[in-house]
Known about the structure:
Pfam families: DUF218 (PF02698)
Keywords: Membrane, Transmembrane, Transmembrane helix
Helix content: 40-55%
Number of helices: 7
Order of helices and strands: HEEEEHEHEHEHEHH
Strand order of the largest sheet: 1-8-7-2-5-6
Largest sheet: 6 strands, parallel
Structural class: alpha/beta
Protein name: YdcF family protein
Amino acid sequence: MRLPRPRRPRLPRTRAGRRGLVQAVMALCVLALLPSTWMYVVTGDRLRTTADVPRTEVAVVFGAGLWDGEPSPYLAHRLDAAAKLYRENRIEVVLVTGDNSREDYDEPDAMRAYLTRHGVPDTRIVSDYAGFDTWDSCVRARKIFGVDKAVLISQGFHIRRAVALCQAAGVTSYGIGVEAKHDVTWYYGGTREILAAGKAALDAVFRPDPRFLGPKEPGVTNALASAR
């Protein structure tokens, strides 16, 4: 039995029809680019380097995966930047936020251990174990840990989204995009950000609750008090 051949899509035959098709395609392209444009507008003057970021009490480091229980190279670069800021007295406390949804996967504790090995006292590190995505981390930083101003640390392909979402969550933010090798992971991350921009815009508009909110925690307040 021969299956019928699928019909090829036919282009409009009239000039008006072709013009309408082009306009529809252009409109879709504009809509697809709006979230990315929003992120660039919101974060235009909020990106810095470790050399020129304003002194801020709290730095937020976002999780970026573990390799055999240790921070991945991408995450290690983020943590190195946080440790550098601490050693230079540019920050006082580091909030590490990541995924601990499974017993055998604990990003915040791995991040804490890495930072202590690189000169940041354990008392100056606060762990957020429910930073399941960027929006959750930003909302929890504000609502659970009471952070209203922070330096955010991530890779360049992610930092604009992080700053835009934390600004929307009520955290006045400066972002540091650390350098990264342009490998497969980097290209994947950059491509993923194009798609993630749409979700980020929806999060900023509708402001959903994080997957887990929970009670307020005094970790950041206590760590700042110990620094004085």
